[in-house]
Amino acid sequence: MKQLLFHIGADRYALRLRDVVRVLPLLELKRLPLAPEAVAGLMDFHGQSVPVIDLSLLAGMAPGQQHFDTRILLVHYHAPDGAPHALGLLAERVLGIAEVDPAALADSGVRAAPFLGQVASDTTGIVQLVEPDQLLSPALRAILFQPEAAAP
């Protein structure tokens, strides 16, 4: 299974490549007054406003640092009702794509953050999967993805 590797702080994480729509350079974001701290802002993606989340803040760490290889990972996000949305993830030090044997993935048994899934180990250490559909709390999801108003 192919995965996109990146860092949140000093630790390595991964997204399944099937969940990634695009890897974008760090763009200037529209700040959202009074938005929760983890919301980095909005980006324009082909005329669509897409919320961008700072993964470091969402993980309870200091804000993500801007490095040469910091990217915005545009992912498919599916709300519990099944509605699809585009969501940007601010990720530090994107490393690239790696092949991970599905048999090497295991449940860590630790559920500190609901969006973190299985783990795998390799010669450079542990990498943990990020589950995009589990990233947003119900309150944050309600702020970012409000139902469209019905037409009059």
TrEMBL record:
Report the superkingdom from the record: Bacteria
Matching entries from InterPro entries are given as: CheW, CheW-like_dom_sf, CheW-lke_dom
* Cellular-component GO terms for this entry: cytosol
PROSITE patterns linked to this entry: CHEW (PS50851)
The record's Gene Ontology biological-process terms are: chemotaxis; signal transduction
- Where does the CheW-like domain lie? 1-141
SUPFAM superfamilies from the UniProt entry: CheW-like (SSF50341)
Q: What is this protein called?
A: Chemotaxis protein CheW
What organism is listed for this UniProt entry? Answer: Rugamonas apoptosis
